[in-house]
Amino acid sequence: MKALKLRKVAIDTYKENVAYLHRDCPLYRSEGFQALNKIEIRDGLETTAVIAVLNIVDDENIIAPDELGLSEQTFAQFHGKEHSAVYVNHAVPPSSLRLVHAKIAGNRLAKKDFLRICSDIVNNRYSKIEITAFLVGCAEGGLERDEMLYLTEAMVETGTTLDWGESMVVDKHCIGGIPGNRTTMLIVPIVTAHGMLMPKTSSRAITSPSGTADTMEVLAKVNLNQDELHSIAQHQRGFIAWGGTANLAPVDDILISVERPLALDSKGQMIASILSKKIAAGSSHLLIDIPVGPTAKVHSQRHALKLRKLFEYIGDRTDMELEVIITDGRQPVGNGIGPSLEARDVMQVLQNDPNAPVDLKEKSLQMAGRILEFDPDIRGGQGYCLARDLLESGRALKKMEDIMALQGSKLISTRPAQFHYQVLAPEAGYVNAIDNLQIAHIARMAGAPMDKLAGIDLHKKLNACVNKKEALYTIHAEFNADFQFAKTLAVKNSGYTIGKNIEY
How many H helices and E strands in the chain? Predict the structure, then answer.
């Protein structure tokens, strides 16, 4: 087969291998290639093989007829040099696709089946269309609890697992959906100040105004390699870093890249996603937070209890000591929503500032207390008081400052965002409801998390008494276009419901 010249195309195809072939390339017609076919690409020495989805190009400024273009992700995996010779052929469909078809038909899959599917996904043998079919099969047909366990284990086995060399490694996770819920950044310094090991790898925002890594990045560097993470953990007993460089359960990242745009929300996939990441991160003891509220991910206590049982079932069978708490998810936690505003809240709590948000402080102390009680030397019920002492004594603040210094402290900007808009109460009364989804949407429209200073500052929370035209919250934005989008959205629907009486 005729060789083509390799070319890097500066396109980020995010978690999908994509190749580009010119329509006038002789191979396009002679080999019967079509757009969205999967092709196998090999170098001249037959040492490297990469599978990619084919796109057809008509512009020679992008790809010449004698070239094969690779997206940034594909080129990085190929380890080739530009203009080197490569050969393409039709890719053989992954054998595990028949298992996907079986799942769509409602059949139950075994552990080895999930392992084969995950192995093919992580090796880029699946297109996003095929991954969508797998996700829909799991969501529509449902996963039995054993299948959730098998999927969790398969995700772990197809990635890297961290080993911290200790029998107790603690962690926490919130299933999400609550803006401003930045408890992790308070729990880590409190728990590590006690001496427990808590190496926290956190995510960036996907659909929220800020992830823990986005907020921590306001204070310190979060893109750290594994050697740096181990060194910081050895010296400070913990860190708060982005987990994207650790290759932990990489199948989960690929599945999420397809799941989010489709707004698929399978409980089985969510549980496998969370627990696979924690097991791969080397966690032995885990606290899970399930917020419940009308606009949280979980709307009812009954649903939360079902989720708790599933988490506990998989935790028991993966030798992880796991505790699930159900918390109030009726409104955002803290005052700030967006990286810089959330970082301000965190530092106010650590500094025992009288202006610190009480709800963020109390929720963090409750959760830190539960984690401290994983320590066999701390009796049940003593954790909260210990956590409070570690915070109020300044030891947690000192620990956070030490962690930040080792990660690489940043000069914290104190200037406000350029544009501001106060959303006012339409009438006097009481705050009866706050829509988490709408508040998060407005904050994202304002530019968060990409613009660190953008977001929302809440002035009123549930049951607060408000006067007519009193400020409910302030929108902050760095760019006028974002500011106008957020302002228009807030005027249309502020996310607040004002009533004449307090509703409990």
Answer: 18, 18
* CATH ID of 170-246+264-407, from 3.40.1030.10, 3.60.10.10, 3.90.550.10, 3.40.50.2300: 3.40.1030.10
* Average pLDDT over all residues of the chain: 94
DSSP states along 402-438: HHHHHH-B-----SPPSEEEEEEPSSSEEEEEE-HHH
Which residue spans of the chain are classified as CATH 2.40.40.20? 4-90
- 109-142 burial, b at 16+ Cβ within 10 Å, e below that, comes to beeebbbbbbbbbbebbbbbebbbbbbbbbbebe
How far are the Cα atoms of 79, 182, 213, 264, 277 from residue 244, in angstroms, in the given order? 20, 19, 10, 22, 11
Residue 30, judged by CB atoms within 10 A of its CB (0-12, 13-18, 19+), counts as exposed
Question: Which of 120, 171, 265, 482 is labelled catalytic?
Answer: 265
Architecture of domain 4-90: Beta Barrel (2.40)
Q: Is 265 a catalytic residue?
A: yes
Say what the pLDDT of residue 105 is. 94
d(CA 83, CA 212): 41
The predicted model scores a pTM of: 0.92
Fold held by 97-157: 1.20.970
* Six token digits for residue 150: 């098998």
Residue 235 pLDDT exceeds 70? yes
Instruction: Provide the pLDDT for residue 320.
Output: 96
Class of domain 419-499: alpha beta
What band does 161 get if pLDDT is binned at 50, 70 and 90?
very high
pLDDT higher than threshold 90 for residue 247? no
Task: Taking residues 233-260, report their average pLDDT.
Answer: 90
Q: Cβ contacts of residue 306 below 8 Å, gap of 6+?
A: none
